[in-house]
Specification:
The complex is a heterodimer. By secondary structure, chain A is of the alpha/beta class. Chain A is built from 18 helices and 20 strands. The longest helix of chain A has 17 residues, at 402-418. In chain A, 57% of the residues are buried. By secondary structure, chain B is of the alpha/beta class. Chain B has 4 helices and 6 strands; from the N terminus they run βααβαββββα. Chain B has a 6-stranded mixed beta barrel. The termini of chain B are far apart. The chains are: A alpha/beta, B alpha/beta.
């Protein structure tokens, strides 16, 4: 099938070829190829490791959620918007916490955008207009392998005709493989991004005297040269990653780069693009925002939505022992949460909905296998720039989709509430 | 030796993220990468193990020096691929943001003869 959409990373490439009979791929990156390959699956639903029917597993899951005081409903970034919508409604009905993978990913960036706003554009605009691409604290060659070729570095756009028309700068604490595609590499010391942004803001406004000879391990002359390069470009895109959002300072680092972008826009045109990870992590935020006004860390225990990342993210709720059951959909917190949070996850009943066995499967009481979104189940996803893209069903499957499972679970929960 | 710990994605880890309970995934996340000079200074050779300790936990990992010559990890820094091993030592504190500090955590590494444990053992 032509024009298949990949459901691995936030670039959501929709120009691929996939033969569903032979599992043959064309034009995929290594991450997409692995996604569209045959892998070991969770074969059937289980309760305490014993095989059960889908109906029995869903019923037991509904009972656990209904009987819990404040369940955590976490994950969502690797499923489609239609399933996420049901997840938010389910969280409200069971008076639980809705949280999603962004809270261990780009949530600090979203917090900063809530505070400051964001000058943004689509990936198409990046391809067509950008003559200076700055990758800051991200490693697209390993995390979003087709982004540079499709949009940001080698892409042939309307106004920018390809690599020769673009300057590319990589700023990072280590020289990654992405630095090899750059025309300039700037190495900063760990945890100093905030200082470097501040120095660049001062230089943009002409306060050279206020900047010391070295900031974050970067010589002042190099920063002056960098700022001049920015001022003389026509359309700059700063693509940033967790190198900024996951270090000390978190959202404050991102706020500072947003302020730098605001300042650059007084001289030329500049946009900011977070390099979002999972294919629908933007949807896990956007859909929750339509439904209840907040993107993540939403607590429904009082019957109305409250947003507080300091209390209601998956990690914070587990560290505080504030949840007594968990529904994990399309995610693996046992592998990706800090050790102390996983300790609490081991103590409470966990329900998992996922196509593949992972570390969370090993500690789950109820395991419900599902169809793979974008391969065995269709739906809608938001690309990293917020553009909605339809993902297709390209392989027939006996597995229930996330949407079907959650629909049945919600029905059971509503029935239990009536009783 | 005092180090700053950075965690992050690698292509290998990314391709195995839906094959978590396999030996290949285990191999893709159970190591730390060091600067060549640090690697030599600690008397390490490929296949040796190091214990990484922070205020938040400790873990034994295989030690690797920079995998690609043109890339570069500065002295005093180690890189651990994101995943269950890295999460034994990162800072779970979120400073009110709800997001742990996965990068830029201070730690100590030392050579050890202890074995690297398997993924199921991490959960015990």
């Amino acid at each position: 099938m032509e024009n298949v959409t990949c459901t691995f990373c936030g670039a959501v490439c929709d120009d691929l070829y996939f033969d569903g009979d032979e599992f043959r791929t064309k034009d995929f990156c290594p991450l997409g190829e692995a996604k569209f390959s045959r892998k070991k699956r969770i074969e059937y639903p289980t309760i305490d490791g014993k095989k059960v029917s889908y109906e029995e597993a869903v019923e037991r899951a509904a009972e656990i959620l209904h009987n819990s005081k404040r369940p955590l409903l976490f994950g969502w970034s690797s499923t489609v918007n239609e399933a996420i919508r049901l997840g938010v409604i389910l969280a409200e009905k069971v008076r639980g916490i809705y949280d999603q993978c962004a809270s261990v990913c780009h949530a600090p960036s979203v917090l900063a955008m809530i505070e400051e706003g964001i000058a943004s554009g689509s990936l198409g605009q990046i391809k067509n207009r950008t003559d200076l691409a700055i990758f800051w604290g991200c490693n697209p060659v390993e995390a979003h392998p087709r982004h540079p070729t499709r949009y940001s570095v080698m892409a042939r756009g309307l106004l920018t005709k390809g690599r020769a028309d673009r300057k590319v700068v990589v700023v990072d604490v280590r020289k990654t493989v992405s630095a090899l595609m750059a025309s300039h590499f700037i190495q900063v010391k760990p945890g100093t991004d905030y200082l470097v942004f501040s120095a660049m803001r001062a230089l943009m406004e002409g306060y050279e005297d206020a900047v010391p000879e070295e900031v974050g391990g970067v010589r002042k002359e190099k920063l002056i040269e960098f700022v001049e390069m920015i001022k003389s470009a026509k359309y700059i895109t700063i693509l940033f990653g967790l190198g900024i959002a996951h270090t000390r300072g978190h959202d404050r680092n991102v706020e500072n780069v947003i302020k730098l972008v605001q300042l650059i826009n007084r001289y030329t045109r500049c946009i900011l693009q977070p390099m979002r990870g999972h294919f629908n992590v933007v949807g896990a935020g956007e859909v929750a925002a339509w439904e209840c006004g907040f993107e993540w860390a939403v607590d429904f225990s009082r019957g109305y939505p409250r947003f507080a990342p300091s209390e209601f993210t998956g990690v914070e709720a587990l560290l505080r022992k504030d949840c007594d059951a968990a529904l994990i959909v399309a995610s693996d917190p046992a592998a990706h949460f800090p050790r102390a949070a996983v300790e609490q996850l081991k103590r409470i009943p966990v329900i998992q909905i996922d196509p593949f066995p992972n570390m969370t499967t090993l500690l789950s009481k109820v395991v419900i296998p599902c169809a793979i979104s974008g391969i065995e189940a269709e739906g809608t996803a938001y690309r990293m720039d917020g553009v909605p893209i339809r993902v297709k069903k390209v392989v027939e499957s006996e597995y229930w989709s996330d949407e079907e499972i959650l629909e049945k679970m919600l029905e059971k929960v509503l029935k239990l509430r009536e009783d | 030796m005092n180090v700053i710990i950075i965690t992050g994605r690698t292509t290998e880890q990314g391709t195995l993220v839906e094959d978590k309970l396999t030996h290949d995934y285990f191999k893709s996340v159970n190591y730390c990468e060091l600067n060549k000079e640090d690697f030599a200074r600690m008397g390490l050779k490929e296949g040796d193990r190091v214990r990484v300790k922070t205020d938040y936990g400790e873990v034994v990992l295989f030690a690797r020096k920079n995998v690609i010559d043109e890339t570069h990890i500065p002295e005093g820094m180690i890189f651990i691929p994101m995943g269950p091993y890295a999460n034994q030592v990162i800072n779970p504190g979120t400073d009110g943001t709800g997001t742990p500090q996965y990068k830029g955590v201070k730690g100590i590494i030392e050579k050890t003869d202890e074995n690297v444990i398997g993924i199921p053992e991490i959960l015990r």
